[in-house]
Every structure is written in C-alpha cells, then in structure tokens.
Design brief:
Layout lengths: L1 E3 L2 E2 L6 E3 L4 E10 L2 E2 L6 E3 L2 E10 L2 E4 L3 E4 L9 E6 L3 E3 L2 E5 L3 E4 L2 E16 L6 E3 L4 E10 L11 H5 L13
Parallel strand pairs: 1-4, 2-5, 3-6, 4-7, 6-9, 7-10, 7-11, 8-12, 9-13, 10-14, 11-14, 12-14, 13-15, 14-16
C-alpha cells in the first residue's frame, strides 16, 4: 500500500503515531507528504518499528522522513522506540533539521540496524540524521548526507546530549 500526497498543519503529514500506540511498517511507501511542523512522513510519539518499505519525498520543518518525539501532549517524558532493521528513508527535505530522521528524545531507544538513509537534505543540521540523545547503529546501514552537518559541541556533551557511534567508535570533537 501507499500513503501519499497528504498535508498536515501540525505533525505527521503521512502518519501520526500517538503515545502508547505502535506502528509497524514492513513494505509499502509513505511518500510525498507535507507538514508545517514535524514528521513529513511519520511523526512518532509511540513505538515505530520499520522493517521494510520506503519513506521518501516528504517535506517538513524537522524530521522530514521520520520525527521521533518522546513527550506526550502534556510535555511529560514517555518511553518509546524507533527501530529500523531494513527499508529506505530517502530524498526527504527538512527546512530546519533532520532531513531523514530527527530524534528529539529523552527516554527512547533509537536503533538503526539495517536499511538505507540517503539523499535527504536539511537547510540546518542533520541532513541524514539529527539526534540529541544516544543512537545505536549496528549491522549494515548506509547513511549518506547530502546537506546539513553533524555537530558535537564538546566531548563533555556526549554523555548528556547524545553521541553517534558506529561500530563502537565515537566521533572526535576536534
């Protein structure tokens, strides 16, 4: 199936996953959706398990492909998961941050174990992936950043504000 051509003034141009709910994608497409805020393709406040398929051509202020948010409507922190084992997050465009994925999270498991994140762009930071907490990358994941940047303000910030680790290596702040 396909979710395509939708528009939202708030969050979740294609799919809005509410707190306490679970969305699983294993095939199909979420494409060409738009939101004025977060999550052009998917805005997830609940669990999102991405096993396969394609999230492409979406537009948003932040998290054009996928926006993961770990707070409920009253701004209380919640626990949720974004797990990607396969599939593609490609050719999405953010006007601020997180062209492919924006993980704006506190108590969340964001894990990338397979698939492809490529061709995404951001006017600000995180053309491919932008996160403010730890993210786990393992297995074979292709991440290609066309625009935007990866920013680590200091090594002291890694424990408090997130790190991007590949095969156990952490970025050097120099």
């Amino acid at each position: 199936g396909e979710i395509s051509g939708n528009k939202s003034k708030e969050n979740g141009g294609g799919v809005l996953v509410l707190p306490g709910s679970r969305f699983e994608m294993d095939g199909g497409k979420i494409t060409n959706n738009t939101t004025d805020n977060g999550g052009g393709g998917v805005f997830a406040q609940g669990d999102f398990y991405f096993y396969g398929g394609e999230i492409s051509g979406n537009n948003a202020k932040s998290g054009a492909g996928v926006y993961v948010y770990a707070k409920d409507d009253t701004k209380h922190e919640i626990t949720n998961h974004f797990i990607m084992t396969d599939g593609k997050i490609i050719n999405n465009t953010a006007s601020d941050k997180g062209g492919g994925i924006y993980a704006d999270c506190y108590d969340i498991d964001t894990c990338l174990f397979g698939g492809e994140i490529s061709g995404n762009t951001s006017v600000g930071i995180g053309g491919g992936v932008c996160c403010n907490r730890p993210i786990t990358v393992g297995g074979t994941v292709k991440i290609e950043i066309l625009s935007g940047e990866v920013v680590v303000s200091s090594l002291d910030d890694l424990d408090d504000f997130g790190a991007f680790a590949l095969d156990g290596l952490e970025p050097d702040a120099d």
